[in-house]
Amino acid sequence: MPFLILKSSECPYAGAVILRGARSGDGTRMILTHVTIVVKDQNAALEFYTKKMGFEKKADYTNPGQPRWLTVGPKGQAIEMVLWQAGMGSDPNLPASHKQAGIGTRWVLEVDDVRNTFTELKAKGVKFKDAQPRVEGWGFSADLIDPDGNHFTIHETRKPSAGTDWAKAGKT
C-alpha cells in the first residue's frame, strides 16, 4: 500500500493522505525525507524560512566534531530541508554543490492559492522574480529566490474543467 488515509477524529491529520513511500525493485521501502539547501549563514536562513516562509524548525544540534545540523520544513509535513552552511564540514565525499550557496536545484511548493500566498510572502519581504504570479495553462506559479540565491516556485494546479484545452487532451 503506497499511501494511508487517516480516519481517526483524534488524529490531527485525519482525512489526509499520507504517502508511505514507494517500493524499490527489490521491494524495500523508499521515501524522501531530506533535501539540502546550501546557505551562506544558517542563522539568517533559519530566520528567513521560519519568519518569512512560515516553516518550522525541525532539528538543530551539533554532534562533537561535526557541523551543525539544522533543518526546517513546511508545517505538518515530514520532509526536512537541511540548511547546510556552504563550505562546512571536511568530508571529502560531500558534493561540490555543498561548497557554494545558490547553485542547487529549484524546489516547487504546492499551495492552495498562489495569488494569496504571493501577496502574503511579498509582504514579509520575500523576493520574487516576477511582479505578479504567472497564469499557465495548467494553473498558476510564481518564482522566488531566498537570500542565498536558491530558487523556489510556488505552484497552484488549476482544477480541470471541460472548457480547458489541457483537460480535453487528457492531461492532468
Structural description of this entry:
This protein is α+β, with helices and mostly antiparallel strands and 172 residues long. The protein folds into 2 domains: 32-101, 2,3-Dihydroxybiphenyl 1,2-Dioxygenase, domain 1 (Roll), CATH 3.10.180.10; 105-172, Roll (2,3-Dihydroxybiphenyl 1,2-Dioxygenase, domain 1), CATH 3.10.180. Helix content is 15%, strand content 32%. It is built from 3 helices and 13 strands; from the N terminus they run E-E-E-E-E-H-E-E-E-E-H-E-E-E-E-H. The chain has helices spanning 42-52, 114-123, 165-168; strands at residues 3-5, 17-19, 22-23, 29-30, 34-39, 56-61, 69-73, 80-85, 107-110, 127-128, 134-135, 139-145, 151-157. The strands form 4 sheets. Strands 9, 10, 11, 12 and 13 form a 5-stranded mixed sheet that branches. Strands 5-8-7-6 form a 4-stranded mixed sheet, covered by helices on one side. It is globular, with a radius of gyration of 19 Å. The model is unreliable at 1-20 and 166-172 (pLDDT under 50).
Could you tell me the number of beta strands? 13
Order of helices and strands: EEEEEHEEEEHEEEEH
Kindly report the name of the CATH homologous superfamily of the largest domain. 2,3-Dihydroxybiphenyl 1,2-Dioxygenase, domain 1
Main beta sheet: strand number and arrangement?
5 strands, mixed
In terms of quaternary structure, what is this? Answer: single chain
Give the C-alpha Rg: 19 Å
CATH fold-level label of the largest domain: 2,3-Dihydroxybiphenyl 1,2-Dioxygenase, domain 1
- Name of the CATH class of the largest domain: Alpha Beta
- Helix % is 10-25%
Low-confidence stretches: 1-20, 166-172
Count of individual helical segments? 3
Mean pLDDT: 79
